[in-house]
Design goal:
473 residues; Aspartate Aminotransferase, domain 2; 13 helices; 18 strands
């Protein structure tokens, strides 16, 4: 492996037969798992040291290019501790020698500690009491959001009589460009045909979409659906729609309207939780009826998510929240150790400060290269770089090119809905979610590499423009 790292530092191109036998099949054929965009890139990730990953790229001529890149994603924003996960092992060394595999019908000390910590963090952020919250665990963010949806749809339904006291409330409000998961329940809250067409809709519920962060549209939608709104589902920051923040005024109006309407508010923090310089991206002091957590909660080690709801606005009916994997003792011990590491090293405050600096630097790059980047948005270490109009749908190509320049980012879909005015649409957006532990040097170097790439791409664009002008003449 040391030899590969040495080759990668010089981006050496190797013959396929030079690779270790264990790597050849994977580099040639992939790992057999299809991605959700319907294709695979030619890259294989082999190792990680510190903030950098070692990668191999299969070339069209059959050879392999080695390289390294700063990992600015952590795998869909899950790896918030980056290389620091190695320190967690000390906390549970030998745990497997005595770990129970009990399910959630029985108590475990490890899960109690984790539940207590999450409730405390939630209460601190929302300025409520620990005792105000109930909490259960699920496996994935999709599953967490599906359970949250079940909570609000069962609110007011009486099992014994079969009567729904809130049956007149048949509207759930979601946001254009939002992403809430893959399962059939959360699929109802997506406004993109490639994910929804051909799948059945909930017969008794209508989903109405609003524009995230737009005060006028918020008022319009609530007015049009007055008396019928059962729940509103929002993200702390609109993620897949292009890393869009809502203003304090928008949040205040949203909470006020939900209160007047007696509508339940679900805050989906599966992506945004722990990423934005605080536990939640939701403004401090705001207390929604339900919060979902995921992705980062498992530190990139395994899938785990959580659903928290406030009493008495929501109650979990017996049996509905049961899951096969509900923070088993080993999982709970690992997650609790990770959250303890995060708190002891003040990583929220660190990421808030460094994130503000990084966003400022990236905005300067966008100003210098407006033909490449249109805008930079974000908070803490959840940062979005929106592509310029001429590159609006070229996110995956640019992601791969940036990877060759030494920075791993992800791509957000943006918002291209024809139901919205052009001024409200958002181009594909590069998402940077560095680990909260990223070194200042790595972060600065990664931003420098993005600037270098933008400069080269701008030169190519200028060249194409000159050729077009010449041809037109």
């Amino acid at each position: 492996m040391d030899e590969l790292w040495s080759f990668a530092s010089h981006r050496k191109v190797m013959e396929f037969d030079e690779l270790d036998l264990g790597l050849r099949a994977c580099v040639r054929d992939g790992d057999g798992v299809a991605d959700h965009y319907g294709g695979r890139t030619p890259f294989t990730f082999v190792d990680q040291r510190g903030d950098e990953i070692l990668l191999l790229e299969r070339l069209d001529d059959g050879r392999v290019r080695t390289g390294t890149a700063y990992n600015m994603t952590g795998g869909y924003g899950t790896g918030i501790l980056g290389d620091d996960v190695k320190h967690l092992g000390v906390r549970f060394a030998g745990f497997l020698d005595h770990a129970t595999t009990t399910n959630d019908e029985f108590h475990s000390v490890e899960r109690f500690r984790l539940v207590s910590r999450i409730k405390r963090l939630l209460a601190d952020h929302t300025e409520t009491r620990d005792a105000d919250w109930e909490l259960t665990f699920t496996s994935t963010g999709s599953e967490a959001m599906d359970l949250a949806l079940q909570l609000v749809l069962l609110d007011g339904f009486h099992l014994a009589s079969g009567v729904d006291a809130r049956r007149e409330r048949d509207v759930v409000i979601a946001c254009h460009g939002a992403w809430h998961g893959w399962v059939l329940g959360t699929n109802q809250m997506l406004d993109r045909r490639q994910f929804t067409d051909g799948l059945p809709r909930m017969a008794s519920t209508r989903v109405v979409f609003m524009q995230y962060g737009d005060l006028d549209d918020l008022q319009t939608v609530f007015s049009a659906c007055h008396g019928r709104i059962r729940a509103v589902v929002v993200e702390g920051i609109l993620g897949d729609g292009g890393v869009v923040r809502g203003s304090d005024a928008w949040w205040e109006s949203l909470f006020g309207l939900c209160s007047k309407e007696n509508a339940r508010l679900i805050d989906d923090e599966v992506l945004t939780g722990f990423r934005t310089g605080a536990m939640l991206a939701l403004p401090r002091g705001r207390a929604p009826d339900c919060v979902t957590l995921g992705k980062a909660l498992g530190f990139g080690l395994f899938p785990i998510s959580a659903v928290a709801w406030r009493r008495p606005s929501l109650l979990l009916r017996a049996g509905v929240g049961m899951r096969t994997f509900n923070a088993r003792p080993f999982q709970a011990a690992v997650v609790d150790a990770g959250l303890d590491h995060l708190e002891r090293h003040a990583l929220f405050a660190r990421s808030a400060g460094l994130g503000e600096w990084a966003i400022g630097e990236l905005r300067e790059i966008a100003r210098n290269y407006p033909g490449v980047f249109k805008a930079v948005r974000g908070q803490g270490f959840l940062i979005g770089i929106e592509l310029a109009d001429d590159l609006a749908r070229q996110g995956h190509r640019i992601r791969d090119e940036l990877l060759r320049h030494g920075v791993l980012v992800e791509v957000e879909s943006g918002i291209f809905s024809r139901k919205l005015p052009r001024s409200a649409r958002v181009n594909e957006t590069l998402r940077l979610t560095p680990p909260l532990t990223v070194s200042e040097l790595s972060l600065a170097d990664g931003i420098h590499r993005i600037a270098t790439y933008a400069s080269r791409l701008a030169e190519q664009s200028d060249f194409r423009e000159l050729v077009t002008i010449k041809d037109d003449a």
